[in-house]
Design goal:
mRNA Triphosphatase Cet1, Chain A, about 250 residues, about 35% strand, eight-stranded antiparallel beta barrel, globular, alpha+beta
């Protein structure tokens, strides 16, 4: 079988600076869950449709993310209960480019994602006063937040040659909190980011051929559900079951 690195080498590259034109900070997101073998099969067909982000000669880039929530997991509970107009607060380090941001994401009731962020010199677990001010200016919630969960993964980023579309592919996911860790080696989350939803995306067309359907999925919520058994997780049980089947090679 052709290895992922060999498949990626067939794609023309794009730099971070060239990607500025497709930042898509206000966008629609469409997510999918699939296996490494399915990903490799699909990417092998698409090297003429996308360019791949390359940083310092690397086409798989490492991310480290620290998620914040209230003491009683308000953001998690709102997502679990299906509430719209919900926030996500995180610090994210882009390892290869040595960049760190505090990011506030807002999912509107019209299924659009808005993201604002501010550059940080480093990731400190505790929120500094200027970081708290940024969060309050973005959310107007008047709440206190604390670090809850670390998430690490490698990301492949593809940019469509013909339409405003970015595709992020996250693999090698790991979650950790309070000394507990989970590592996933076969499970992949793909996310298609577009100005407006376009089903003619070459990647989405290939997924449809394989009957891989859209999944509303949050890495933060998955991590909480798996690492905090005391938290209610009924709404995520079907996704966790599918995740485990993919991880164990039971989903082709």
């Amino acid at each position: 079988m052709i290895q992922l690195s060999e498949i990626l080498s067939a794609f023309p590259s794009i730099s971070l600076k060239e990607m500025d034109g497709v930042a898509l900070m206000n966008r629609t997101d469409t997510k999918f869950m699939l296996s490494m073998s399915e990903l490799e099969e699909i990417l092998a067909l698409l090297s003429d449709k996308y360019r791949v982000l390359e940083i310092n000669g690397l086409r798989k880039n490492s991310y480290e993310t620290l998620y914040y929530d209230t003491a009683d997991f308000l953001f998690y509970r709102r997502h679990h209960s299906g509430k719209k107009n919900r926030y996500k607060i995180r610090k994210r380090k882009y390892v290869e480019s040595n960049l760190t941001f505090l990011e506030v994401k807002f999912k509107t009731n019209k299924d659009r994602t808005e993201k604002d962020r501010v550059k940080l010199p480093l990731v400190s677990e505790d929120l500094l006063e200027n970081e708290k001010t940024f969060i309050e200016d973005e959310t107007h919630l008047g709440l206190e937040f604390e670090p809850k969960l670390w998430n690490s993964f490698q990301r492949i980023t593809l940019v469509n040659n013909e339409m405003p579309e970015r595709l992020t592919i996250d693999l090698g996911l790991g979650f950790s909190s309070n000394g507990k860790e989970i590592k996933l080696n076969n499970f992949v989350i793909a996310e298609v980011k577009q100005e407006r939803r376009n089903r003619y995306s070459p990647f989405m067309v290939e997924l449809k051929k394989r009957m891989i359907r859209e999944d509303s999925i949050s890495k933060y919520c998955l991590g909480v559900a798996m690492l905090f058994p005391e938290m209610k997780s009924n709404s995520f049980k079907s996704k966790i079951l599918k995740l485990r089947k993919i991880e164990n090679g039971m989903v082709a």
